[in-house]
Amino acid sequence: xxxxxxxxxxxxxxxxxxxxxxxxxxxxxxxxxxxxxxxxxxxxxxxxxxxxxxxxxxxxxxxxxxxxxxxxxxxxxxxxxxxxxxxxxxxxxxxxxxxxxxxxxxxxxxxxxxxxxxxxxxxxxxxxxxxxxxxxxxxxxxxxxxxxxxxxxxxxxxxxxxxxxxxxxxxxxxxxxxxxxxxxxxxxxxxxxxxxxxxxxxxxxxxxxxxxxxxxxxxxxxxxxxxxxxxxxxxxxxxxxxxxxxxxxxxxxxxxxxxxxxxxxxxxxxxxxxxxxxxxxxxxxxxxxxxxxxxxxxxxxxxxxxxxxxxxxxxxxxxxxxxxxxxx
Length: 328
Prior knowledge:
Elements: E1 6-11, H1 15-27, E2 31-37, H2 41-50, E3 55-57, H3 60-64, E4 71-74, H4 81-90, E5 94-98, H5 105-118, E6 122-125, H6 132-143, E7 149-159, H7 177-193, E8 199-206, E9 214-222, E10 228-234, E11 236-247, E12 250-254, E13 263-267, E14 271-274, H8 281-293, H9 302-321, E15 325-326
Parallel strand pairs: 1-2, 1-4, 2-3, 4-5, 5-6, 7-10
Antiparallel strand pairs: 7-11, 8-9, 8-15, 9-10, 11-12, 12-13, 13-14
Helix pairs in contact: 1-8, 4-5, 5-9, 7-9
């Protein structure tokens, strides 16, 4: 139970913040939007006015110096996650950082260590994990209704190739489809299988027209016991957003995978749709984060984000070297 609201600051006016996370915090039971910052003071003022946020700052450092702020959400480009997570931790702020947490597992470890030293919470913003839909799916898996899991297939694709100024097309900023959306099926497979993959084999289209980032990638993660995740992610393909869990006696399908509510269970004798409540995943994420700041046991400790980055490291290495990479 939250005795008082958590005062949030937002570091940046990114689209994901304005479209989803800020509205989610506003809808949450526990969150209060106290301030927003941008390197462009006018943009910060405009965004603050749009969302009725009391204070705006023309620098991230100024927001971190505000004693009223207890937690920050960081939606900055990937290459800035480590710098501003560490600065926030040193300022005594809890951190919800947009996915992927960092550019490498080593960076993620550094961030986690900095937050631990400062005694603040660090969480990676995979909002879908707070939707009760995924706990219901795990209940179906535990029940044995679809038999033993034989594999998982995930797709997350869209086409933004025409946007030449997109920050996702800059290698040095952590651009590319694996970082941006491939991280979703990777995270989901780890969540559902409740173990870590042993090896990765990935093929990618590295586009010279888009800063040399992986615009399309197809991969396989070996989870041992003959079980694998196969996945496709793309920023230069028709839109898809789906996840299928294949068992010996049936399958579970999520469409869309990371923004929907219901899911379909198909067995030898039945096809049924499991209806789950329509919820704001971002509000649930904010509420759980606040509960953990106030003392609840983390559902996903920062070590989980480090493990996810370790898998992403292997996927990118595999794609660049065109080789199977063992994940240590």
